[in-house]
């Protein structure tokens, strides 16, 4: 069956490229044995790691440190019903190297609330998957 | 310490009200022992359950059926650095009652790609948490 609305799977490079176009994603980790999902500002570092900027004073960075987490970002347009979603799995570690911290600060990366001195958490992607979702080409029979 | 950028915790009612203002959220479930995150169109049903519209022909509905899942939605404005995020945990079940399916179809709920005949998955919230995140009132010292 020919279905135009089948999601198009994306390769890792395309996923990283798309990730670098949005300022915020969602980190998924375990809290009290349940999945927690937290929006965080991030950027794709030159080495391919994701740098998450977490509010200093929150417990989030400590919870993420040294654990395997999932990270998701998307851009979805409700008007055209098109968009993409990318999912990354990998190990998260608080950034401790002063040079790397300085570089992240210089790049302008800040936590969502814009505080001048966030904690950076580096996520090294081990699995990257993504899909482009589009209703294009498919007749939408309801209004 | 007085911090204007502390997230404001939201009550369950406020969370459901906010959820009803956005067309899409993200369901978090387990796939191959890893957390999977999938954007889905949804609505808050009159009985307080979340109805997710999943593409027929995908394996998602089957994977969600009868399991405890997390569901997250947010609205975040990168310009003002403000917004909210809501997280729901609960049991998901494929909607099988013809009357309830008809009601969901009549309400206009469709899967993200707009197909006329989606599978509906009902999520009964057991835990609802949310936060309003805002940089308002806090001087942003970087440009």
UniProtKB/TrEMBL annotation, chains A, B:
This is Pyridoxamine 5'-phosphate oxidase family protein. SUPFAM superfamilies: FMN-binding split barrel. Keywords: Oxidoreductase. It comes from the Bacteria. Its EC number is 1.-.-.-. Pfam families: Pyridox_ox_2. GO terms for molecular function: oxidoreductase activity. The keyword Oxidoreductase applies.
